[in-house]
Every structure is written in C-alpha cells, then in structure tokens.
Amino acid sequence: MPKKTKNSQTSADSSRTIRIFAWASFLNDVGSDIIYPIWPLFVTEILKANMAVLGFIDGLGEAIVSIAKAVSGFWSDKIRRRKRFIWIGYLMGSASRIGYALSTVWQHLIPFRILDRAGKIRSAPRDAVVADLSTEQNRAKHFGLLRTADYAGALVGILLCILLFQLVGYRHLFMFAALPSLIGAALVILKFKEKRLADSTIYKGLRFRDLSGNFLLFLILSAIFSIGNFTYSFLLIHAKQIGFKTSFIPVLYLVFSLAATVTSYPFGKLADKIGRKTVLYLAFLFWAILCLLIIFTRRLEYLWLIFIFYGLHKGALEPIQGTLVAELAPEKYRASCIGTYQMIIGLCAFPASFVAGLMWDKIGYTAPFYLSLALTIIASGLMLWIREPNKTVS
Fold first, then answer.
1. pLDDT tens digit sequence for 89-112
2. In contact, 61 and 254? CB cutoff 8 Å
3. How far apart are CA 151 and CA 144, in angstroms?
4. Among 60-74, 95-109, 366-380, which stretch is predicted with the lowest mean pLDDT?
5. Distances from the Cα of 59 to the Cα of 50, 226, 357, angstroms
6. Is domain 14-191+211-383 annotated with CATH 3.40.50.2000?
7. CB 43 within 8 A of CB 109
8. Which of 68, 82, 107, 175 is 20 to 30 A (C-alpha) from 163?
9. How far is CA 154 from the centre of its chain?
10. What's the pTM value of the predicted model, to 2 decimals?
C-alpha cells in the first residue's frame, strides 16, 4: 500500500477539521433556529414589546457583540490560538437560551440577547482557521459548506419548533434549545486538535496602514448595505400583519432556511469558478427583489416568494462575504481583520434594526424597505471598484 504524502495527509487533516466545524455549526443552528421563528412573536406578544423595542433588542445585541468579535479576532492573533474562542462561543449561545426562558419582561432579554450574540466570538477565529486550511481554489466552497451546515441545522431547528411549539410552549422550547449548542461545544473540545500557529514575531496589533484600500472599500460598501439589511423579524411581522396565521409563521422561516441551505454550497463553488463579485451582485439583486415585493404587494401568495428570495440572498451573501474578507486581509492579521469586519457589520445592525422599527411605527411598513433598496443600489455601485484578489479557477 502506498504511503500517504505529507500534502495528502495535510489535506485530510484540513477536511476533518472543516467537517468538525460544520457539525458544530449545524448543532448550534439547530438550537438557535428552534427559537428564531417564534422570537419576534415572543417579544411582541408574550412580553408586550412594540416594533421599535423589537428592533432595539435585535440591533443592540449585534452592536455590542460586534466589539467582542473584533476583540476575539485580535486576541486570537495575539496569542496564536483559536480553539478556546470557538467552544466558549457555543457555550454562551447555550446559556442565553436558558435566560430567554426565564425572562418575564422584555427588559430581561437585553443581557441574554447580548450573551447570545457574544457567542459569535467564535466566528473570527473559526473563519481564520478555515481560511488558513483552504486554498484559493476551494476557499469559497469551504465557507459555503459551513453556511450549508448552518442552514441545515436551521431546517432541523425549525422543524422541531413546528413539532414542539404547540405541545410545550415558548419557555420549555427555549430550555430545550440550549442542548444542541452544548453538544457542539463538546464536539469542538474533544475532536478539534489545534496546532499552535507558527509565528515567533511579536504581535503588535492590526494598524490602519496594514489594510489595503481594496479591503477598506469593501468594508465601507458592506457597512452601507448592512444599515439597510435589518433583522429577519420584520419579515415575519409583515407576514403576520397581512393575515398569515401565527401558528404557521415558522413554516415561512422554514422556506427561507431551505432555500439558503440548498444554495450556500453551490454559490460558494460558483464563486470559486466565476469570481466573488458576480455572486455578491446576485446576493444584492435577490435582496432588492425582496424589497420590491414587500413594497408593491400585500397578497399572501407572494409571501412564499419573499422568503425564497431571502434564502437565496443569504445563501449567496454570507459565504462570499467571508471569503472576500479572508482574501483581502493580510494573512498575519486574518482573524483580526475578520473580527474588525464583523464588528463594523454588527455596529451597523443596531441602527439598521432600530431605525427600521421607528420608520415602521412612525411612517409605515414600507418605509424601511425603500431605504434598504436605496442603500443596496449604492453598495452595488461601490462594488464596481473592488479588485478581486484572485482570478484563477479550479
């Protein structure tokens, strides 16, 4: 039997690590998406919050945790370690769901929402590991695989929500949702064998001059788009307000997750073949179509299209964003750049959701979507100036 070469062994180790991350991500999303389809209903109906409060809670968690993402990326690069940030992040997500279950007024949700999103400290270190283990020919595919695992977990979580919600109610369901993330944390602890990153130089931290104009422009256009890319909760509330039955709301979220699941990996592979920007333009186009459908239609049959386009949008957007950030960043500062990018996007999430909630309450439900459509057009125009770091194809 021929011996394995060093390269083939390294490739096998890389594939194993990415599979571990995919399974852990799958489990975490099972837990989180047991909650997500009923989250806006829990906040507005059980805890009696209005749309502005819903936008505030959804946006605040993203904004505060965004700082934690940047810190985790910086600290991970500094100490040359990734693993501890990943499993601790999953534990945070698990603990937050127990807090949701115990909350009796909407103000109680704030610290637990922050804790939930703070679990994203895992993202920058994990994505840096994936980027390091990948090549230019398969990096987008690997990020697409992780997003597919996320959305497959979402599908399972939504199905569990649909099956169990009527039987156990909000609070018991939230308690149950803590379990999968706990298992995901154990999987990373037990199965991921971390190798210390080889770098004997002193890490002085990411500086502005370390970043290329290409990276900074992509950061700016992503921030502009994110200000109009508010929380999914608005889509679910829109469905309810035009007459969709509350008990069937999770089915719409299932449609979105199914569309995202089946397209994330293919969109990642497509980006490896035809370029990152082309697929990112598709993501912006899908979001623009969604906005137009909501602005100009209020018929129930169009809801299915809205959530299909939302799934297509996420399936195309998230793998490519992660890939481009990893490729535009200096390799030594990869986790720091990913964390910084996620921080900026997270900081934009607060005004995005809060302002959208205020516009919804004060002007009308279409107002946030007009704003989002305009910002999407601006971001698409800026994309013309982005230079892709790699033009080779597999």
1. 999 999 999 999 998 888 888 889
2. no
3. 10
4. 60-74
5. 14, 11, 10
6. no
7. yes
8. 107
9. 12
10. 0.69
